[in-house]
Amino acid sequence: MHTLAVARHGAYDPVTGSLTDDGRAQVMALANKLELVARGRNILVAAAASRRTHESGQIIANQLGVPLETDPFPCAAESTIPDAREYLDGHAGEKDLIVFVGHDWHVRTVPALFVPGYLAIAEDRDIAFASSAIVDCEHRTVVII
After folding, report:
1. Which CATH number applies to 3-95+102-133?
2. Do the Cβ atoms of 23 and 50 come closer than 8 Å?
3. Sheet order of strands, 3-8 included
4. Domain ranges of the chain
5. How confident is the model at residue 56 (pLDDT cuts 50, 70, 90)?
């Protein structure tokens, strides 16, 4: 894996857990941006196990023309780092772009597996709906889009 995109789901209805119309539009806009990153790459799109992350992941996967892999690791914040590392290492050789759709704490923590010092930068940052951290794992750099 050369590149990792850790994306936050779109805006959602707190009662149903489903994306709102605005949330779907936000995720589609992100999917269009990710399409530029994805061109010519062997892609995996995965989503955490919640309704809003699954719906967001499906929109992105459809736009990128690949199936969505669901439930790669639990949503619980305390299990994110070790589970994410194991999951990503397991797919590193077969994919050169992994798009993972999760929650704000995924965008805050998972890139730190590859970019030293990222946690200090991200801990106070507001992670907007349908934003993504694009991590160049080889050069250990990150950009938030």
Report:
1. 3.40.50.1240
2. no
3. 68-70, 43-47, 97-102, 3-8, 132-136, 141-144
4. 3-95+102-133
5. very high
Query: Could you tell me if 30 and 7 are in contact, meaning their C-beta atoms sit under 8 angstroms apart?
Result: yes
The token pair that represents 74 in the structure block: 């639990």
Q: What is the pLDDT of residues 64-83, one digit of tens each?
A: 999 998 766 555 555 555 56
Distance between first and last Cα of the chain: 20
Q: pTM of this prediction? A: 0.86
Q: What does the alpha-carbon distance between residue 109 and residue 81 come to, in Å, rounded to a whole number?
A: 7
CA proximity to 80, closest of 140, 41, 122: 122
> b/e string for 23-37 if b means 16 or more Cβ within 10 A?
bbebbbebbebbeeb
Beta carbons within 8 Å of 91's beta carbon, 6+ residues apart: 1, 44, 98
Q: Is 35 or 104 the better-scoring residue by pLDDT?
A: 35
